[in-house]
Write a structure and sequence with these properties.
This protein is of the alpha/beta class. About 40% of the residues lie in helices and about 20% in strands.
Length: about 120
């Protein structure tokens, strides 16, 4: 079960609303607080208000307006401690200077929860 602290607030961003809902519900039932977005620009705008409130971003790589890698970079500029998990059906990121974790779709919910748990344990 997730530890109930401010560090357990996650952001899920994917242009597919069904995936945002699926991931958000699964992570919430596992004890995390989750805020979801289908628009990466809206997610960025929201995080700018309180950048240190969040410590983990789960995002699709391929999205309109701003891809997940770019979103991760922008959030890292606001809060260097935020962890970034990219999920993609296609891409391998050649220029992954910040070593964001990359996983390929489809990703089973149980695996996603294990990945999140592992990433957040690194902060303890």
């Amino acid at each position: 079960m997730a530890i109930e602290t401010e560090k357990s607030i996650l952001i899920v961003v994917d242009d597919e609303a069904d995936l945002v809902n699926l991931f958000s519900e699964a992570l919430t039932s596992h004890g995390y607080s989750v805020i979801g977005f289908t628009d990466p620009i809206a997610a960025l705008s929201h995080v700018k208000q309180e950048p240190f409130k969040y410590n983990l971003l789960i995002t699709d790589y391929r999205m309109p307006k701003l891809n997940g890698y770019e979103l991760g970079l922008k959030l890292k500029e606001l809060n260097n401690n935020i962890k970034v998990i990219l999920i993609s059906a296609y891409e391998n990121i050649e220029d992954n200077k910040l070593n964001f974790k990359l996983y390929h779709k489809p990703i089973p919910v149980k695996k996603l929860i294990a990945i999140v748990d592992d990433q957040l344990k690194m902060n303890e």
